[in-house]
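Tokens as discussed.
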């Protein structure tokens, strides 16, 4: 993969939002409550909730359960949003330099070759 291909791949990858942004924009701003009231209603400490809404902390499983109950959603929704965001950040890091991207693509190509060999023999 050359540098131009790496750049194209980086641009192709869509950027998911941190679950905290969804909490802040879709739930907190629309609640009409103070941060203290909002955090008590959800059951997440105010300091932690602030860090989550600022994207500085990731959701833990217990947070996902509390959010699902508070917002009448599912744990899987919150876990999926966090996983998607975290995976994107990791991919972004791996593609952040040509050297990282080169090693990533070599690993992917080796994996593909291994899968192709397994498919042919099975």
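Sequence:
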């Amino acid at each position: 993969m050359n540098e131009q291909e790496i750049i194209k791949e980086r641009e192709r990858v869509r950027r998911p939002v941190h679950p905290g942004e969804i909490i802040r924009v879709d739930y907190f701003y629309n609640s009409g409550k103070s941060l203290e009231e909002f955090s008590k209603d959800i059951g997440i400490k105010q300091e932690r909730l602030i860090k989550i809404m600022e994207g500085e902390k990731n959701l833990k499983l217990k947070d996902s359960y509390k959010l699902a109950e508070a917002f009448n959603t599912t744990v899987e929704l919150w876990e999926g949003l966090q996983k998607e965001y975290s995976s994107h950040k990791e991919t972004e890091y791996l593609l952040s330099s040509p050297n990282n991207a080169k090693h990533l693509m070599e690993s992917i190509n080796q994996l593909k070759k291994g899968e192709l060999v397994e498919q042919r023999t099975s």
